[in-house]
Amino acid sequence: MRLASSEVIKRWLDLGSKLSIQNFEPKMLQHVTYCIRLGEHLEVLRSNGSWESESVDELISYELSPHEYVKIWSLEEMSLSTDVCGIFGPISDLIEQGLELVYSPFIEPLFRGRLRLGLCNVLSCPIQIRMSQPVGKILFFDVSDSNLQKQAPRSTMNRDLTAFRRYVVLIR
């Protein structure tokens, strides 16, 4: 398993065979992570226990009431091949805003779709959220067998060990 750099991620996106990201934003790609943004729809839990869909406009924010929890989806829609997996986590800016992200940390190979997440205001005052606001980041990994180092044949390893032993005897 090998961590993908931004250059590898760009190559995968250009080729379209290992990874595709709809709504990809180049400035969200860091050295080894891609920042995931809040999508345009969320679901709010109403007092009667039902979930109601709301839209979040890029210019007009949605106000999260104190201790309110909402279901959100990523703006990005992804497709991973059998050779790619991801590890997801929140960005530290959420902590400073008083927001807690509820998420699954692993994105399995062959995942297709938007990430389903939860966002909770842990403060006792309202907080504004907006569409395209970064909420998390993904590390992508190449999990293909091509990254495995081939072991040297045992005869080569034995020959190298014998040569090393002779060297040690000579320097004593």
What does this structure look like?
The protein is α+β, with helices and mostly antiparallel strands and 172 residues long. It has a single domain (2-171), classed as Deoxyuridine triphosphatase (dUTPase) (Deoxyuridine 5'-Triphosphate Nucleotidohydrolase, Chain A, Distorted Sandwich). Helices cover 19% and strands 43% of the residues. The protein is built from 3 helices and 12 strands. The protein has helices at residues 6-15, 93-97, 154-171, and strands at residues 2-3, 19-22, 33-45, 51-55, 62-64, 69-80, 84-90, 99-102, 106-107, 112-121, 127-129, 134-142. The strands form 2 sheets. Strands 1, 2, 3, 4, 6, 7, 8, 9, 10 and 12 form a 10-stranded antiparallel sheet that branches. Strand 3 (33-45) and strand 4 (51-55) form a beta hairpin. The model has no long low-confidence stretch (mean pLDDT 87).
In short:
The protein is of the alpha+beta class and 172 residues long. It has helices spanning 6-15, 93-97, 154-171; strands at residues 2-3, 19-22, 33-45, 51-55, 62-64, 69-80, 84-90, 99-102, 106-107, 112-121, 127-129, 134-142.
